[in-house]
């Protein structure tokens, strides 16, 4: 204790010419010695990267951008954040800056834009929290990507008259995203939600509407150094032999690309890659959302099994290997690759990103 170190309080002032030495007043010490800085309750600190993580990041092609589908998970303490502890609300509001300091996490998804369009100012606030070489993968609002107007539980209520509306897509998504994110735009993703049966029977007509939408959008590639428009689908019928070539033709004509959507009701990655090859040469956008072992309706099961998302639970070796091989080929040809990962893919998105980085940094096998 400091009181013990400094001794008793000073004696009364002596009247002698040479008074004895007086011990310093502890109160004076406290007034002159600055207190150590205290972390604010809303401040999020990154976990300082170790030498191995920095070295791994340095070995990656700079066109490779790995990241999570979003941020704000308390279970990432000791992986992305320091030990904290932090709650989800604090991380959602203030965690992006700490996330973006992780050497392997060079992009992130913004999913909240799917539920409600974001403003230029909201995008600009995100952009202001990350370094210049960081990129965002942003979902277009359901306002223009869902054929149905849905209730709070996700049930379709009525047809959406704004589905694939090019004017709304520009006003509510592309224009504010470009203005707010600027050069930090990565992929702007139109995820076409599962279609009602009546629409699935008319995919050629929908393709023409998709063509009209994509042709009407501002030139994202021309406006940004790395930006691209991508289309993700949630019905396997889009990849049928009759429709997939037509979809590829629409995307190629309009300068868009196909987003590899690794989700419950979609075919495995190997079955989606032919469509990406049909667009060669071009960038890669992949959203690795769910481990296939959970089945077509297993998103909630994965969430219950994997929370709090602090470790790998189920390695998906097949998907890892195909992503590594595809990213290596795409970036080796001078194209960008964006891979965002959900915690539901293997249990912990940042650790899945690290596993991909280790695969990409390794010497490829002969002929691989």
UniProtKB/TrEMBL annotation:
Coiled coil: none
Superkingdom to which the source organism belongs: Bacteria
InterPro entries recorded: DUF72, UPF0759_sf
Residues covered by region (Disordered): 1-49
Protein name per UniProt: DUF72 domain-containing protein
Organism whose genome encodes this protein: Hydrogenophaga pseudoflava
